[in-house]
Amino acid sequence: MTEADHPAPPGTSFFDGQLGFALRRWCAPVLDLPPHADPDVYLERRAELGADEVATRMLRAAGIEEFCVDTGFAPERLTSSAQLGTAAGARAHDVVRLEPLAEQVALDIVTGQLGVAHFPDLVRSRLAARAGRAGGARAGSPQAPANPEVPGESGASGKPDTGKAAVVGVKSVAAYRVGLELPAARPTDRAVIASVRGWVSRLRAGAPIRLADPVLHSFLIWTGADLGLPVQIHTGYGDTDLHLARANPLLLTDLLRELSATGAPVLLLHCYPYHREAGYLAQVFPHVYLDVGLATHNVGRASAAVLGEALELAPFGKMLFSTDAFALAELYLLGATLFRRALGEFLAAGVEADDWTVEDAQRVAGLIGAGNARRVYRLAELAAAEPAAEPAIPRPTAEPGAAGAGKAAAARPARPPAGKATGRRGKQAKPEKTAANSQATRPRQAAKPSAAKPTASKPAGSKPAPAEPGSGEPTTASAEPSATAGQAVAKPAKPKPGAAPKPATAKRAAAKKAGGAASRSRKQAPVPISLIKEPRGKEHHRSPKPPRSRSHGTAAHPPRGDETG
Hints:
Blueprint: H1 18-26, H2 39-49, H3 51-62, E1 66-70, H4 81-88, E2 91-97, H5 98-110, H6 119-131, E3 167-172, H7 174-177, H8 189-204, H9 214-226, E4 231-235, H10 253-259, E5 266-270, H11 275-284, E6 288-290, H12 293-298, H13 303-310, H14 330-352, H15 358-377, H16 379-385, E7 478-479, H17 537-542, E8 548-549
Parallel strand pairs: 1-2, 2-3, 3-4, 4-5, 5-6
Antiparallel strand pairs: 7-8
Helix pairs in contact: 3-14, 5-6, 5-8, 11-13, 13-14, 14-15
């Protein structure tokens, strides 16, 4: 449930916290329970419905229309982005995690398939091939053999996905490995080869295949930027594998300055508790953007304060919606709901104080909830290239209450009587990273959000899919929903002065009896989706594969920590 890698201490519960209270308030109605249901009652109902049904309900109630999913963490255990999109009834796109790609090339060198001197060119060509950019060998060709661990190659079942999602960006988790004080200048091939030589020597001596070299992390970021892809960089809050003091985005200042020449967007992910610093960087550098995804659901009712602090300096055209949901379907719904509510309160307060107009508020809600992500990741181009959408499938009627921009496309919040809030797509710009693109919900008028029923409506060009658990940044379905979904497109409710949000009602959906139940302790989690993160390291990979679910981060490599950010 949290970033902790251990069960709650005896006599305590993870339900007793901001995240736990938010889960009981907003997720219980989606399972046909009253708001604030007792944790034991919630877990019993969750087990009764089964992991797949729960994931589908949560994903569709989140109201996310498009997902940008980091498929680099434990892809063999989670759903692919395509499976996540299917479960959510939304479109989904891949974000390639850079470190696993480099680790596979290093493994090929260790096994004698390649020479050390080939590392720089092979990384460039494989990334270009994966992203579908010119200059690289196609995946599956002799020059770039298909890698089962590369995101998008297969789903949780190990079988190839029927349709691979388009790559819209790349992501670095250098913060987890070495911190963010990376070399600013573009590393030369000679410097890269020298670092790889030392790395390979350690691998041959028995070290784990885990990239942790500042020069190589910098090289990977430059490689993604040279392809013109939006580059996501994890900053701030994360699990115990991260040293928070070394994850301050200000440490990237020199590198960001140098990268500006490439024109590639750089997305600072999550940022908390350095969201104000990230807002400053987004203001002073034209190619820098940010989100507060991971913090939104973790801080619960304080999400409005965090978002407001990030927007003190960050231009409204530089903030993106994100959930960073992982392995737990509820996190998609909470990420979307709490973000919508936070953005709605922020914009409504400005309208009430006459700092901006209702029209301004509606336009900004459209930008932050969807427009900025669509522009940065060039999602309009992908939508135009897709075949016509099939008839939409009905969505669950459970209403999450004040829904907020979420990662998975699901129910759209009901529109208040006020004016029409539209999200501007803007001109197509170079891609930039944001966990998942989602249409921002329109700012609600006042604090009184109208309950939004999930509907079958989707963005044009999206393919409806059968209900399945989300994947990627999970609150979307995937073997284990993974938060890596990234930035999503959700529609914000229009701001409406006064009135407190009313709890949303939920229509009871047909219960699906499936084996699998979520529990508070790892020992009781032989199910696809667990309320506690699976054990790390070797034990993590021995645990049973969840049926499907992956979202904001899924890379196949044996990391020391979760690195789900």
